Amino acid sequence: MSSGSNGRVAVVTGGASSIGQAVARRLAQDGHDISIADIAPADETAGMVAEAGRRCLPLSCDISSGESVRAFADSVFGQFGRCDVLVACAAIYPIMDFAETTWEDWRRYMAVNLDSLFHLTKAFLPGMVNAGWGRIIAFTSTTFYAGTPHFVAYTTTKGGMIGFVRALATEVGEAGVTVNAIAPSITRTAGTLAGRQQELGMFDACLSLQAIKRTEEPEDLVGAVSFFASDDAAFITGQTLPVDGGLVRG
């Protein structure tokens, strides 16, 4: 694959661990300098980026806050002068029956998972448009296709992201900016292993339906990110790609 990524800058949310960390490491290996937005310390990821020979700017950022995202963006532009690739990985996903979901719970889901995409895009899209080149990659979920129970609020945010990607891609296509999404299945991370996913049999349920009979790992997702971030994906936009071992077909 011809990426032409040396010297480009990628912003990765949730890059301190799990999927975000794997994405940051892969993009660094592809030749990107990396800036990480996370509420958790990202020193380990910064070390991985350095091992790949690239620069890393790990910063504390509350992506649900427009003010925090704007301050983060100012730091990215101050350090690197640009953002070429934006990868929105960070999300919250507590398992909760809809009957137990409060308005405050609902708004928290929306703020972290969906409103953050608005804040991040508002901060970084203008620079991409001015440069005539950019990549926005959002992580949605196969729960949108499956209608997974106990995930009504989460699934709503992920469906909103798919709509955002489709519509924004149409607006910015002529500016040289592509907007795509990746939809994982349940992925083995510290968060999913500590949650109720195993108790509810979600890992086993997905395995029974997948064509590839093993649980998804963060590293299974990085190839799709690398491709969408590359020059080879210049004519692909507005798409959502399930990367789920064949759970969703068609």
Q: What is the CATH class name?
A: Alpha Beta
Structural class: alpha/beta
pLDDT under 50 segments (min length 5)? none
CATH fold topology? Rossmann fold
Number of strands: 7
Number of helices: 9
How many discrete structural domains? 1
End-to-end C-alpha gap: 25 Å
Helix content: 40-55%
Largest sheet: 7 strands, parallel
Strand order of the largest sheet: 3-2-1-4-5-6-7
Mean pLDDT: 92
If classified by CATH, what would the architecture be?
Answer: 3-Layer(aba) Sandwich
User: Beta-sheet strand percentage?
Assistant: 15-25%
Question: How would the global form be characterised?
Answer: globular
Radius of gyration: 17 Å
H/E order of the elements?
A: EHEHEHEHEHHEHHHE
The fourth-level CATH homologous superfamily is: NAD(P)-binding Rossmann-like Domain
What report would you give on this structure?
- The chain has 250 residues and is of the alpha/beta class.
- The chain has one domain: NAD(P)-binding Rossmann-like Domain (Rossmann fold, 3-Layer(aba) Sandwich), CATH 3.40.50.
- It has helices at 18-29, 43-51, 66-80, 103-131, 143-146, 152-172, 190-194, 202-209, 222-228, and strands at 9-13, 33-38, 56-60, 85-88, 134-139, 177-184, 240-243.
- It has a seven-stranded parallel beta sheet, sandwiched between helices.
- α2 links the parallel β2 and β3.
- α4 (103-131) runs parallel beside α6.
- The radius of gyration is 17 Å and the shape is globular.
- The chain starts with 8 loop residues before the first strand and ends in a 7-residue tail after the last strand.
